Amino acid sequence: MRNDSSADGWQDDFATRLKAQALLQTFNADLLSHPSATLTLERWCGLHRLASAAHITAHLLRDVEKTPTTEQRRELKVDNNEPIKYRRVQLFCGEHILSEADNWYVPARLTAAMNRQLEQTDTPFGRAVKELNFRRETISANVLWSVLPEGWEMQPTPTGKHAQLDIPQHVLEHRAILYTQGNLPFSEVVETYTREIFSFPLTPPTNRAR
C-alpha cells in the first residue's frame, strides 16, 4: 500500500487496526483452505476491487537462482542427482504486487508443456500446473505484522486525528508443498504477501446522531 493513501481511510486508530487484523486473518484462512494461492489472490482482488479486472499476472524474475537445500530435497523426495528448478515471481493484481513467490519444482514430475510454460512465460505456477489437480500441504504460516500493539485491550481508545496506519512491506509468509493426485510432491513454495493486499479504500465508521 502506498504510504500516501491516508485519504482512503487507513488511519492509525484502534477501529482501523481491528479491521486490518480481521482482514489479515480472513486472508490467511482463505489461503490455508484452498490449494491454489493464485486463485485465492484473484478472489481477493475481485472482492476488494484492486483492479478493473480481477486477474493475477506474474512477473518472472530471471537470472535469479537459489539452490535447494538438503531438507527441501528430502521434502520433495528426490536424491542429489535429480534436477530441481527454481523460479521466482511477483504476482500482480493490476499495478499492485500482492506476493513474491520462491518456487522449487521437480521438472520430471510435470508435463513437457508445463515445463515450457514455466521456463518461457510469466504464467503463475498454480495456473501452469492446474491440470495436475494438485493439493497443497502448508508447512508453516507466519504472520509478519503485529497489527494490534501489546496490551491494546487495556488501553483507552484514543480520540482526535490520527496519522496514516504504517503497514510493513511484508505481512504474511506461507511455506507449502504441492502434491499430485498420486500424493507425489512436485513443488515447494515460499510465498511472501505484501501490504498491497490492503490497497483499497477503507470505509470509515458512520457516526449516527441519536
Give the strand content: 25-35%
Helicity range: 10-25%
| Element-by-element helix/strand order | HHEHEEHHEEE
Q: Please outline the major beta sheet.
A: 6 strands, antiparallel
CATH superfamily: Chorismate lyase-like
The averaged pLDDT comes out at: 88
CATH architecture: 3-Layer(aba) Sandwich
Please give the alpha-carbon distance between the first and last residues: 36 Å
Unreliable runs, pLDDT <50, ≥5 residues? 1-7
Number of domain units: 1
Rg over alpha carbons: 20 Å
InterPro entries: Chorismate_lyase_/UTRA_dom_sf (IPR028978)
Protein name: Chorismate lyase
Organism: Pseudolysobacter antarcticus
Give a brief outline of the structure:
The chain is α+β, with helices and mostly antiparallel strands and 210 residues long. 24% of the residues lie in helices and 25% in strands.
Defining traits:
210 residues, Chorismate lyase, disordered N terminus, alpha+beta, Chorismate_lyase_/UTRA_dom_sf, six-stranded antiparallel beta sheet
How would you describe the overall organization of this protein?
- The chain is α+β, with helices and mostly antiparallel strands.
- It has a single domain (11-148, 166-198), classed as Chorismate lyase (3-Layer(aba) Sandwich).
- Helix content is 24%, strand content 25%.
- It is built from five helices and six strands; from the N terminus they run H-H-E-H-E-E-H-H-E-E-E.
- It has helices at residues 14-32, 37-47, 70-76, 112-120, 125-128, and strands spanning 56-60, 85-93, 96-105, 135-143, 170-179, 185-194.
- Strands 1-2-3-6-5-4 form a six-stranded antiparallel beta sheet.
- Strand 2 and strand 3 (96-105) form a beta hairpin.
- The longest helix is centred in the first third of the chain and has 19 residues, at 14-32.
- It is elongated, with a radius of gyration of 20 Å.
- 29% of the residues are buried.
- The model is unreliable at 1-7 (pLDDT under 50).
- It comes from Pseudolysobacter antarcticus.
- This is Chorismate lyase.
